[in-house]
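Case study 2.
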Amino acid sequence: MTAITAERPTPTATLAVACRRVTKEFGTGDARVQALRGVDLALPPGEMTLLVGPSGCGKTTLISIVAGLLDTSAGEVEVLGTNLTRLSNGQKVDFRRRNIGFVFQQYNLLPALTAAENVAVPLLIAGQPRRAAVAEAHALLHQVGLKERANALPSELSGGQQQRVAIARALIHRPRLLVCDEPTAALDAQMGQNVMELIRGVAVQPDRAVIVVTHDSRVYHFGDRIVRMSDGRIEQVEQHRPEARGGK
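Prediction:
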C-alpha cells in the first residue's frame, strides 16, 4: 500500500470525479457548520475508492455533492466530464438517472414489490416496457447469486440478500458511477465481506468508478485506494497495488 500526499495534475477528461477546492456550509451565523473545507479529489474510472474517517468528518456530504444531491458552497465538481455546479436542478436529476447508481445502508426496497420488480424500477422510471425491464432484472439477479429468490418479497429475504437486490437495482441501468453509503453497516462481518466481494467483482468495470463510504476497516483491502477524511478535509490518499489484494 502506497501513501500519496500529492499527485500530479490529471486531465479531467480521464477522470470519473474531479473536485476542486470544494467547500460546503450549513446554517448561518453562530449556527454555521463548515462540513467541507476546500476538498480536492481526483478519481479515475475502473477503480473502487473507499472514503473513510470518523463520523461527522464530511464523507456523506462529499458523496452527496459528487452525486449531485447537494450543491457546493464554493468550488467545482466534475463528474464523468460534466460540471455539476453549472447544471440546473432538473438537469442534475436527469444526469443522476442516466449516470449514477446508489447503494444505501438500509436497502430502501419497496416492500410490496418482488426482488425482480425492485431491481427493475430504474428501467421502468426510464420508460422501458415492464416485461423487458423485469427480464433484465432476472438476469442481473442471477449474476448476483439470487436467481432462485427473484420472486421473493423483501420481507422474505435476509439482510445480505436484500443488499444484493439493492446492488442489482443500482447497476441495472449501467451507471458509470456507483456510490455506496455504508453498504455493510447493517450486516454481520462475514456477510459484509460477501457484499464487498460482490461489489468488487460485479460493479468495478473499466468505464465505471465506484465510491464506498465505510467505517469498517475489515473491508479496506477491497479498495484500489483509500481516501481518509478528517474535519471536512482529505488528509491522505492511500493507493493499493493489485498484488496486495491478490490480483484484480
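Residues 24 and 72 are 5 Å apart (CA to CA).
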